């Protein structure tokens, strides 16, 4: 894990990741925002250190190491190898085609390399498990869905924010290009000059404000302010907009969690894994989703309530989770939740072989 100066922060950790970041930084300088994030996380952790230290930490319900090992093996590595095999098959098909029509051969596929979970990914999972320890619920389906949905929405716990730093228009995701076109159309309709997309490149704050704080936005952000940047997507659950940050703040207060936390004043607090995990659980416990299958007024239920209802499978619950960016990707969340449920069961009731493997890897 890199320090602010891009060197390794932990003596026993490899320097490879830090060297890659250094090279990336030298090539295009686009990681400056990432290291501002590191500093912000440290400030947030320091601001709430006393309150975090007071939080009740009961005996763990699930030892993290066996679950992490299962996740790494049965999802990250298994899927990584499956994707590699697909690339090899595509390469062999293209090579066969080039041999037949005497066209240039495709570049060879590099040798397969097994991937391993990074320290940062493991810390996110551990923070969620610690919050699971602090709630009364014990139904493994709830934890499996939390881990399954969050792992999907965070790209396996590697993304805790939306990137707004781009140096070329071609780098912008299609969703951002569409939003820029829509916002410029609104400006033209209001007899205002459209914004040149090139003026937003290498200006993450300006881009975030244009994308998230436009007139009539759905995020509760105030146009003409820095709300788009201040309340940009952050955290494991990816809160976005003043309205969601305010809701998360209210949820934490209702649960009596982390007294003194003020997400509107210090939204960067979500960079801290522990705080982010607490906010995530508060959302799962208190935010109510409309269930059109039920008659009003009792047709709004929390994710905890939906998951405890055995009539709902992973797909049904995800379909009701309408505040996520990809509510239609239920199949992926279903597969991940099933995998995590199996890993939870294995961690709770390990076989003799798994026990030996866990001892080999070390317990935490």
**Mean pLDDT across all amino acids:** 88
Return the string of H and E elements.
Answer: HHHHHHHHHHHEEHHHH
User: So what's the overall shape?
Assistant: globular
Q: pLDDT under 50 segments (min length 5)?
A: 21-29
Discrete helix count: 15
Protein name: Glycoside hydrolase family 19 catalytic domain-containing protein
InterPro entries: Lysozyme-like_dom_sf
Organism: Bradyrhizobium barranii subsp. barranii
Describe this structure in words.
This protein has 364 residues and is mainly alpha-helical. The chain folds into two domains: 31-161 and 233-350, no CATH class; 169-230, no CATH class. It has 15 helices and two strands. The protein has helices spanning 16-28, 32-47, 49-54, 64-101, 119-134, 140-153, 174-189, 204-212, 227-230, 242-254, 273-286, 303-308, 314-320, 330-348, 352-361; strands at 288-290, 300-302. The chain has a two-stranded antiparallel ribbon. Helix 5 packs across helix 11, helix 6 crosses helix 14 and helix 10 crosses helix 11 (273-286).
